[in-house]
């Protein structure tokens, strides 16, 4: 009995759950809300005796980790495209559709089989079409996706990366995601997650990241981190009725009354960096708590509301934050790095993929890693690959290219390109559109075929010194990508996916073809065969009737017949 | 097959075809004309219907309320346009930004190969302004376009006003699944060409443009709006695009369906639909409407800003507001509601418009003639060429002198090849000259003669064309010896088959052009021999040549539009049509001019050559 309670106590101390919500009022008048939920658990899934007692950590994911020997798992479901020009950089980027990348333990022998089974299991857990991930859309990037947790092996044989740009994300994906939270959607910040509001927005993204992390600076003990994030941007015109005034109730149609009782920390951060004297917007209720954090290369100031303190909720026992803008100015931003991609050309035979990357830093150049995964039915002419910046050729210092195999695997192109300061770099490659077999077309072939986003990973020069100590106490949103240098920070930018039309037959055609071939075979082949096999003879003209009678008589008489 | 494998019956069939060749040909010709005229008779045509399920069964509501405000914006736009003396770029950018769009501009410039006297422009510089309404939670893969031209003077101010009004209203709606691009293009077609080339990063015509900064993925459909009055009596839809391409019929159906729903008078070719198809006047009304479409399609030019979209496989149409003296007027709010309804339905599209016809003719908005119905008319004309070719083949296969030895035959055939090849090469060189010289030698012509550049180009073209008529004399000097009876038959056989292939291919791409050319060239091809009366035949041949076909078409077109012209004006119009045709080729890549110059005219020259065979 005593032993049991001791071990229970020990287990309880091994767990930690934090939740936070960051709200950033955007210059365009829109508002960006980012939820982060982190569960830490000091355990070893790879032990011989299986882990069976789960408390805060979701059992379904824990079993997946131990069964498939997963070292790191990153999955995101996104509906919409992040508008870097208007909204700046997100805390955690994700491409439209679904994205999944997994590092397996080096003990796994058949990675492909594990990957196949894993995608099917995850498909069930998240009610998503992840089962459509197969060898034709899976790649093994050599440099773009490094492990984010503790690293001891970075052989990319154990990495699998796939995107499904066509995946539609909706309530059915949100519900299983919410069920992974310790408090569900019953208490804490998660009560705000009502799908009717979340899907009435400009951008919606939900992610799950699992990785092993260090507990302390010396990294004596490691623990598993499950980080669930949800990012949503509400539109000024459609959700805000054009008024520059936002409140928790307007955004989520709920207010907060308590923190999740299981959480060790539960906070709301409001980005007030641009608004130190309340000249742009006013915030109510006001809070004395301010916090500073270095995030995305910039020192930001946040007003903090601690939900574990009863004071926060005031006398009405409910917190409804209100942000009221004073000015109505909105302008485009110039983020240091952004990118776009499009298909050039016309007609259904060939085309050209253009990827345009902008470095808006006035005087520093920096390298970026570009990852392109193109389905096999666009046959890339890799000899037409050009990289130009400022009108001059820009030779990539590293190129990793894996050609596609028809119906087997996609093209994979990874390049390390140096972006000169204040420049536009354009990467172009021509392609030919393949003619598919008629069963390979989707049910809506005239809609077009999707090509996933290209991924640009970069170390962007930072204006302030970055925090390289990842273990110290800091807000969750600023601590996801580990930082190794003080002078630059890591950014990942996704371009828009492409919709490409392939030559599509008229699908009423098979009927016509059957009719035509039957006719050709019956008439053409039949008569030709007849002509070829018949032997021709010169035919005697028919004897006259009188001659016939005469011959008949002659036959009876036994005399020779008339010729 | 049995018929052909039996030598006796084959012989009988061939002798029947050769004996009755002329009557059959005449019969076919008249059958073709009658078939074509019958196409617009209502009982023979099909009713239009919506094929696309995504647009047919879904319900949308139209609630656009702000017509008056759009007209106020139009006035403001007009004032700014007058102040700047062109496109008020800054004002447009600011106004679009205030409506919550992502706004971008594109600069372009183009020097025309020679001055365009119709639009009075030579060096064109301008700016396109476009704003993108980003659909919520959409990954920028699909887009729709609404465009309005910024025309000189007070034209189309209302179109821009309505476009901005719609942008404002659309921005506050949640149901968009595709980005919507609101484009105001300067210098009408040239601006549109620059924008489309920039969007698709192609350069087919050598225009200078600055690259676009913002895109919305693959464009699914586009509408171009032309509106020059506060109220309209009817809305007209223009379908004919570059090289005779047409948008999917469902786009026209969509327009018609909403006109019916909202109660707006709608027209095609500016002609109101009539219900009395069984009366003579009703029938002739339908024929005239269809003939207008045939004429416009055959011209191969873009009859609105929409025409350039079609090359990129984007279904597009131009909607024109017409204000005539009718009593019943439609206000801007109603036009806005109509456009809102159309865009909401296009927004519902799951695939590109592909269900309905791409090849059709329309005798009215509610009826259409599909490719299966109109092709026989052309087929009957093409049969004539094949029959004539068969006749010539039979004549060549049974030469009168059968007993000659093989050596003589070989000699004869070798001279035959030479006598065929020389006119072929020379007439094509003349065609190449007709294609190259007018634009190349305009400077020289301007130096030596008292003409403007445009006149120089047109007159050079006519001069080269006329010069080609002297060809037979020059050809014969190159051939050693006399042209034989055998020789012209071979040449004619080649020419007839060449014409058949040429017209067949043209009719597949642009039926109207192929049919009009066939109507005039097939009689030429069938009757010409060296033995017909020279002078009379020469006159007939010239009258049936492509240049005269164009001249007649100009007069007939004016007649159909109920704007008859005198011969003098008609001639001036003819000259300007030639210059416009050449410009269309250089500016937008229209293929009619090279087709006529490089293929049809040389082919006609071959027949001219046969007539003067010695």
TrEMBL record, chain A:
GO CC annotation terms, alphabetical: GPI-anchor transamidase complex
Signal peptide start and end residues: none
GO biological process, one term: attachment of GPI anchor to protein
Domain of life: Eukaryota
Name of the protein this chain belongs to: Phosphatidylinositol glycan anchor biosynthesis class T
Automatic annotation (TrEMBL), chain B:
GO biological process: attachment of GPI anchor to protein; GPI anchor biosynthetic process
Membrane topology: Multi-pass membrane protein
Involved pathway(s): Glycolipid biosynthesis; glycosylphosphatidylinositol-anchor biosynthesis
InterPro entries cross-referenced by the UniProt entry: Gaa1
Claim: Lipid biosynthesis is one of the keywords in the record: no
Transmembrane segments: 20-41, 371-396, 416-437, 495-528, 535-557, 591-613
Keywords, sorted A to Z: Disulfide bond, Endoplasmic reticulum, Glycoprotein, GPI-anchor biosynthesis, Membrane, Transmembrane, Transmembrane helix
Cellular-component GO terms for this entry: GPI-anchor transamidase complex
UniProt entry tagged with the keyword Nucleus: no
Predominant location category: endoplasmic reticulum
UniProt subcellular location: Endoplasmic reticulum membrane
Oligomer status and interactors: Heteropentamer. Part of the GPI-anchor transamidase complex, consisting of PIGK, PIGT, PIGS, PIGU and GAA1. Interacts with PIGK.
Function recorded in the entry: Component of the glycosylphosphatidylinositol-anchor (GPI-anchor) transamidase (GPI-T) complex that catalyzes the formation of the linkage between a proprotein and a GPI-anchor and participates in GPI anchored protein biosynthesis. Binds GPI-anchor.
Name assigned to this protein: GPI-anchor transamidase component GPAA1
Organism: Nothobranchius furzeri
